From TrEMBL:
GO terms for molecular function: L-malate dehydrogenase (NAD+) activity. PANTHER family: MALATE AND LACTATE DEHYDROGENASE (PTHR11540), MALATE DEHYDROGENASE, MITOCHONDRIAL (PTHR11540:SF16). Residues 63-224 form the Lactate/malate dehydrogenase C-terminal domain. InterPro entries: Lactate/malate_DH_C (IPR022383), Lactate/malate_DH_N (IPR001236), Lactate_DH/Glyco_Ohase_4_C (IPR015955), NAD(P)-bd_dom_sf (IPR036291). It catalyses: (S)-malate + NAD(+) = oxaloacetate + NADH + H(+). It comes from Mytilus galloprovincialis. Residues 1-61 form the Lactate/malate dehydrogenase N-terminal domain. This is Malate dehydrogenase, mitochondrial. Keywords: NAD, Oxidoreductase, Tricarboxylic acid cycle.
Length: 230
Protein backbone atom coordinates (compact mmCIF):
# COMPACT_ATOMS: atom_id res chain seq x y z
CA UNK A 1 0.00 0.00 0.00
CA UNK A 2 1.42 3.38 -1.00
CA UNK A 3 1.36 6.41 1.27
CA UNK A 4 -1.40 7.95 -0.87
CA UNK A 5 -3.45 4.76 -0.54
CA UNK A 6 -2.89 4.80 3.23
CA UNK A 7 -4.06 8.38 3.42
CA UNK A 8 -7.14 7.78 1.28
CA UNK A 9 -8.09 4.84 3.51
CA UNK A 10 -7.36 6.44 6.88
CA UNK A 11 -8.05 10.16 6.52
CA UNK A 12 -11.81 9.87 6.94
CA UNK A 13 -11.41 7.64 9.99
CA UNK A 14 -9.06 10.12 11.68
CA UNK A 15 -11.34 13.04 10.83
CA UNK A 16 -14.42 11.35 12.31
CA UNK A 17 -12.67 10.17 15.50
CA UNK A 18 -11.00 13.51 16.20
CA UNK A 19 -14.27 15.32 15.53
CA UNK A 20 -15.96 13.11 18.13
CA UNK A 21 -13.15 13.83 20.60
CA UNK A 22 -13.64 17.55 20.03
CA UNK A 23 -17.36 17.23 20.75
CA UNK A 24 -17.26 14.94 23.78
CA UNK A 25 -13.78 15.22 25.36
CA UNK A 26 -12.25 18.49 24.11
CA UNK A 27 -9.51 18.47 26.77
CA UNK A 28 -8.28 14.97 25.89
CA UNK A 29 -4.65 14.27 25.05
CA UNK A 30 -4.84 12.94 21.49
CA UNK A 31 -2.06 10.75 20.09
CA UNK A 32 -2.31 10.12 16.35
CA UNK A 33 -0.70 6.85 15.32
CA UNK A 34 -2.67 6.29 12.10
CA UNK A 35 -0.42 6.54 9.05
CA UNK A 36 0.62 8.59 7.25
CA UNK A 37 1.19 10.60 10.44
CA UNK A 38 2.89 13.42 8.50
CA UNK A 39 -0.56 14.14 7.03
CA UNK A 40 -3.05 12.78 9.57
CA UNK A 41 -1.68 14.90 12.44
CA UNK A 42 -2.19 18.21 10.56
CA UNK A 43 -5.61 16.91 9.49
CA UNK A 44 -6.49 16.32 13.14
CA UNK A 45 -5.25 19.78 14.09
CA UNK A 46 -7.48 21.40 11.46
CA UNK A 47 -10.52 19.48 12.71
CA UNK A 48 -9.84 20.67 16.26
CA UNK A 49 -9.33 24.24 15.07
CA UNK A 50 -12.69 24.20 13.28
CA UNK A 51 -14.30 23.02 16.52
CA UNK A 52 -12.53 25.77 18.48
CA UNK A 53 -10.71 23.38 20.82
CA UNK A 54 -7.24 23.04 19.31
CA UNK A 55 -4.51 22.98 21.96
CA UNK A 56 -1.06 22.34 20.52
CA UNK A 57 0.16 21.05 23.89
CA UNK A 58 -2.34 18.16 23.77
CA UNK A 59 -1.96 16.83 20.22
CA UNK A 60 0.81 14.37 19.34
CA UNK A 61 1.83 12.43 16.24
CA UNK A 62 3.41 9.13 17.22
CA UNK A 63 7.01 8.74 16.03
CA UNK A 64 8.26 6.54 18.87
CA UNK A 65 8.92 3.57 16.59
CA UNK A 66 11.57 5.57 14.71
CA UNK A 67 13.48 6.07 17.97
CA UNK A 68 13.28 2.38 18.85
CA UNK A 69 14.56 1.41 15.43
CA UNK A 70 17.29 4.06 15.36
CA UNK A 71 18.84 2.96 18.62
CA UNK A 72 18.55 -0.71 17.63
CA UNK A 73 20.37 -0.08 14.33
CA UNK A 74 23.06 2.07 15.96
CA UNK A 75 23.57 -0.40 18.82
CA UNK A 76 23.96 -3.21 16.29
CA UNK A 77 26.54 -1.19 14.34
CA UNK A 78 28.71 -0.31 17.34
CA UNK A 79 28.09 -3.41 19.43
CA UNK A 80 26.65 -1.70 22.51
CA UNK A 81 23.70 -2.45 24.80
CA UNK A 82 20.57 -1.08 23.11
CA UNK A 83 18.87 -0.47 26.46
CA UNK A 84 21.65 1.96 27.44
CA UNK A 85 21.51 4.00 24.23
CA UNK A 86 19.49 7.06 23.21
CA UNK A 87 19.41 8.27 19.59
CA UNK A 88 17.25 11.36 18.97
CA UNK A 89 15.14 11.32 15.79
CA UNK A 90 13.58 14.47 14.35
CA UNK A 91 11.64 15.52 11.26
CA UNK A 92 8.64 13.44 10.28
CA UNK A 93 7.44 9.86 10.30
CA UNK A 94 8.14 8.46 6.84
CA UNK A 95 10.85 8.24 4.20
CA UNK A 96 13.36 11.06 3.94
CA UNK A 97 11.54 13.06 6.62
CA UNK A 98 12.92 10.67 9.28
CA UNK A 99 16.22 12.18 10.47
CA UNK A 100 18.18 10.38 13.21
CA UNK A 101 20.64 12.63 15.02
CA UNK A 102 23.38 10.07 15.47
CA UNK A 103 25.87 12.80 16.39
CA UNK A 104 23.77 13.42 19.52
CA UNK A 105 23.61 9.79 20.65
CA UNK A 106 23.93 9.21 24.38
CA UNK A 107 26.47 7.86 25.07
CA UNK A 108 28.39 9.14 22.01
CA UNK A 109 29.12 6.60 19.28
CA UNK A 110 31.98 6.45 16.79
CA UNK A 111 30.62 5.83 13.29
CA UNK A 112 31.95 6.93 9.92
CA UNK A 113 29.81 9.04 7.60
CA UNK A 114 29.27 6.02 5.35
CA UNK A 115 28.13 3.92 8.31
CA UNK A 116 25.73 6.66 9.36
CA UNK A 117 24.33 6.88 5.82
CA UNK A 118 23.65 3.13 5.78
CA UNK A 119 21.81 3.31 9.12
CA UNK A 120 19.74 6.29 7.96
CA UNK A 121 18.76 4.54 4.73
CA UNK A 122 17.81 1.42 6.67
CA UNK A 123 15.71 3.49 9.08
CA UNK A 124 13.96 5.48 6.36
CA UNK A 125 13.11 2.32 4.40
CA UNK A 126 12.15 0.13 7.38
CA UNK A 127 8.37 0.33 6.92
CA UNK A 128 8.60 -0.40 3.20
CA UNK A 129 10.86 -3.39 3.84
CA UNK A 130 8.43 -4.86 6.37
CA UNK A 131 5.42 -4.35 4.10
CA UNK A 132 7.26 -6.03 1.23
CA UNK A 133 8.31 -8.91 3.49
CA UNK A 134 4.66 -9.40 4.45
CA UNK A 135 3.66 -9.23 0.78
CA UNK A 136 1.56 -6.11 1.43
CA UNK A 137 -0.67 -8.01 3.87
CA UNK A 138 0.40 -6.03 6.94
CA UNK A 139 2.82 -3.57 8.48
CA UNK A 140 4.91 -3.24 11.65
CA UNK A 141 1.92 -3.70 13.92
CA UNK A 142 3.52 -5.18 17.04
CA UNK A 143 6.62 -2.98 17.09
CA UNK A 144 4.45 0.08 16.50
CA UNK A 145 2.22 -0.91 19.41
CA UNK A 146 5.24 -1.44 21.66
CA UNK A 147 6.71 1.97 20.81
CA UNK A 148 3.34 3.69 21.21
CA UNK A 149 2.81 2.09 24.60
CA UNK A 150 6.16 3.46 25.78
CA UNK A 151 5.16 6.99 24.76
CA UNK A 152 1.69 6.65 26.27
CA UNK A 153 3.01 5.34 29.59
CA UNK A 154 5.42 8.29 29.79
CA UNK A 155 2.56 10.70 29.07
CA UNK A 156 0.39 9.06 31.74
CA UNK A 157 3.27 9.27 34.22
CA UNK A 158 3.63 12.98 33.43
CA UNK A 159 -0.11 13.53 33.90
CA UNK A 160 0.22 11.74 37.25
CA UNK A 161 2.86 14.25 38.34
CA UNK A 162 6.11 12.41 37.62
CA UNK A 163 8.70 14.97 36.49
CA UNK A 164 11.36 14.58 33.82
CA UNK A 165 9.30 12.61 31.30
CA UNK A 166 10.92 13.18 27.90
CA UNK A 167 9.60 11.58 24.71
CA UNK A 168 9.62 12.53 21.04
CA UNK A 169 6.56 13.19 18.90
CA UNK A 170 5.42 15.03 15.78
CA UNK A 171 3.81 18.24 17.01
CA UNK A 172 3.12 21.90 16.23
CA UNK A 173 6.52 23.48 15.94
CA UNK A 174 8.45 26.66 15.26
CA UNK A 175 11.84 24.96 14.98
CA UNK A 176 11.97 25.24 11.18
CA UNK A 177 9.77 26.49 8.35
CA UNK A 178 7.65 23.36 8.81
CA UNK A 179 4.60 24.01 11.02
CA UNK A 180 4.81 20.45 12.34
CA UNK A 181 7.98 18.60 13.28
CA UNK A 182 9.05 15.65 15.42
CA UNK A 183 11.40 16.64 18.24
CA UNK A 184 12.04 15.62 21.86
CA UNK A 185 9.45 16.99 24.29
CA UNK A 186 9.29 17.50 28.03
CA UNK A 187 5.87 16.24 29.12
CA UNK A 188 3.75 17.37 32.04
CA UNK A 189 0.24 17.31 33.44
CA UNK A 190 -1.15 19.52 30.68
CA UNK A 191 0.74 17.86 27.84
CA UNK A 192 3.83 19.51 26.38
CA UNK A 193 5.73 21.56 28.95
CA UNK A 194 8.61 22.40 26.63
CA UNK A 195 9.63 21.54 23.09
CA UNK A 196 13.30 20.62 23.47
CA UNK A 197 13.89 21.20 19.77
CA UNK A 198 17.00 20.44 17.77
CA UNK A 199 20.38 21.54 19.06
CA UNK A 200 23.92 21.14 17.79
CA UNK A 201 23.15 19.53 14.44
CA UNK A 202 26.27 18.73 12.50
CA UNK A 203 26.58 19.76 8.84
CA UNK A 204 25.38 16.39 7.54
CA UNK A 205 22.29 16.37 9.77
CA UNK A 206 21.49 19.98 8.88
CA UNK A 207 21.37 18.99 5.21
CA UNK A 208 19.14 16.01 6.01
CA UNK A 209 16.65 18.28 7.78
CA UNK A 210 16.69 20.73 4.86
CA UNK A 211 16.01 17.86 2.44
CA UNK A 212 13.07 16.70 4.57
CA UNK A 213 11.26 20.05 4.65
CA UNK A 214 9.78 20.07 1.10
CA UNK A 215 8.37 16.56 1.56
CA UNK A 216 6.97 17.52 4.96
CA UNK A 217 5.33 20.58 3.42
CA UNK A 218 3.58 18.42 0.80
CA UNK A 219 2.46 15.90 3.41
CA UNK A 220 1.14 18.59 5.75
CA UNK A 221 -0.77 20.39 3.02
CA UNK A 222 -2.45 17.14 2.01
CA UNK A 223 -3.86 16.76 5.52
CA UNK A 224 -4.95 20.39 5.73
CA UNK A 225 -6.66 20.23 2.33
CA UNK A 226 -8.59 17.10 3.30
CA UNK A 227 -9.80 18.64 6.56
CA UNK A 228 -10.98 21.78 4.79
CA UNK A 229 -12.66 20.22 1.77
CA UNK A 230 -15.91 19.61 3.62
Amino acid sequence: MTEDEQFNTNAGIVKDLVSACADFCPKAMICIITNPVNSTLPLAAEVLKKKGVFDEKRLFGMTALNLSRAKAFVAEAVGCNVTKLVVPVVGGNSGITIVPLISQSIPPVDLSLEERKKIIQKLQNADTEIIETKASTGSATLSMAHAASKFTLSLLAAIDGEEGQVESAYVKSEETTSPYLATPLLLGGEGIVKNLGMSSLDEFETELVKAALPELARNIQKGIDYANKS
